[in-house]
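user: At home tonight, take the chain set out below, taking as long as you need, and be ready to discuss the fold:
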Amino acid sequence: MASPTVKPVLRTDYQRSVAEYWNKEKDPVNIKLGEVDGLYHHHYGLGQYDPAVLEAPAEVRDQVMIAEMHRLETAQAEVLLDAFGDVPVGGHLMDGGSGRGGTSFMANARFGARIDGVSISEEQVAFANNQAVERGVADQVRFHFKNMLDTGFETGSFNGIWTNETTMYVDLQQLYGEFARLIAPGGRYVCITGCSNDLTGLRSRAVSQIDQHYICNIHPRSEYFRALADNGFVPISVVDLTPDTIPYWELRAQSSVATGVEEPFLTAYKEGSFHYLLIVADRI
């Protein structure tokens, strides 16, 4: 009898290009911030920054600015995890596009849940699994070289799933079809994402510059709600986080780890062509 065909993780030229980008990524804006306390994030920040950091002595100013940026990105992860409400101890959550693992470790510490992170970057999966060993939680937090459009995990095996600034790399109908399969009825999906304004975003030069910088394809806001509804998810909360993320970008633009994408983000947010949303939806 023929053995079952094993599907490759990377199935398109685009997926291979995204994986190559993140396998090679060693951006100080991610590495230096993670070195502050060992939580390595790959997302942006929320909340007002302390203006005193800009007045710090020159010899320590960069250090305190990086620490403040890291505080804001950790605060963003807290907002995402708050949206899950009560997760049963011993529950099971998935991090879709898990990066170097920061939010997964926070979720495990908060909820006592088992966490499976998935990513198409083998380098970041290896980094995150090493972090799990160093933290002594490798039996509870695991990271996998998998495609979140087709994970191979058991149907209905998760209490909840989150994506944190990763949905712009995938087709939303495929993504939410897979998440509908994975999340048990009554479970929850939480998303933080940037999305374009349906009226003006597709014509925005700033949004196009963000796409080009990260080789992603930012979706219009309406596509999220259409794909969620088509796949059995009912949004229970939608929060526009745009005003809360602008201070992070203003601080980052003045830091040593600025990458050049700060101006397009600030322009897009302030002109209204781009939004930073928290979407919370239950699986019915």
The CA atoms of residues 196 and 274 lie 4 Å apart. Strands lie at 92-96, 114-119, 141-145, 158-164, 183-196, 233-240, 274-283. The first helix runs from residue 13 to 24.
